[in-house]
Design a protein that fits this description.
Elements: H1 2-5, H2 10-23, H3 27-31, H4 35-42, H5 48-62, H6 72-76, H7 83-92, H8 104-112, H9 122-132, H10 138-151, H11 169-174
Helix pairs in contact: 4-5, 8-10
Protein name: HhH-GPD domain-containing protein
Keywords: 4Fe-4S, DNA damage, Glycosidase, Hydrolase, Iron, Iron-sulfur, Metal-binding
Domain HhH-GPD: 4-151
Length: 175
């Protein structure tokens, strides 16, 4: 699901997941598949052709669920998985974080609340956050900031509803 979610909405990915997981409940089943079989299940996803190739290559490389790597190095070696995706997978697998999830919400919100300077580079955002935040919160802080960005700190923010407006730089300057 993480590979499919890149450049697409959670709602869209969640809508296709029941049928997809029904047809491909594990890596073995996916590895034995092909593009013609997989594409109908993911055709509503942005860039589905490329993502289908990546998913099949990942499945054929891994072969079994228990072979899924759970390190940054192992995950980012797979097609279609960058640092953000690897951080999400590691968080969901409950393994120690090696980085901070830096999705488009984290990229927008982190500078607004005064944590880092503004940039559109997710890798730079992640590195800057890793330098200022304690490692023991890396696994959760990215998702926390992301949820804040999805629900409240939208492109047009709902500052009055925000639970952290008392410490927010954007709110302080714009209130």
């Amino acid at each position: 699901m993480v590979v499919l979610s890149a450049q697409d909405s959670d709602a869209n990915i969640n809508s296709i997941s029941p049928a997809l997981f029904g047809a491909f409940p594990n890596m073995e089943r996916l590895a034995a598949s092909n593009l013609e079989t997989l594409i109908p299940y993911i055709s509503k996803v942005r860039n589905f052709g490329t993502k289908a190739k990546w998913l099949l290559e990942i499945a054929q490389t891994i072969q079994k669920d228990e072979n899924i790597p759970l390190t940054m190095e192992g995950l980012t070696a797979l097609k279609g998985i960058g640092r953000k995706s690897a951080n999400v997978i590691m968080r969901e697998a409950k393994v120690p974080a090696e980085g901070i999830i830096a999705d488009l919400h984290v990229i927008r919100v982190s500078p607004r609340i005064g944590l880092i300077p503004e940039t559109q580079d997710g890798n730079k955002v992640e590195k800057q956050l890793m330098q200022i935040l304690p490692k023991e919160i890396w696994g959760e802080i990215g998702m926390s900031i992301s949820f804040l960005g999805r629900e409240i700190c939208r492109p047009k923010p709902k500052c009055e509803e925000c639970p952290i407006n008392s410490i927010c730089e954007y709110y302080r300057v714009n209130k």
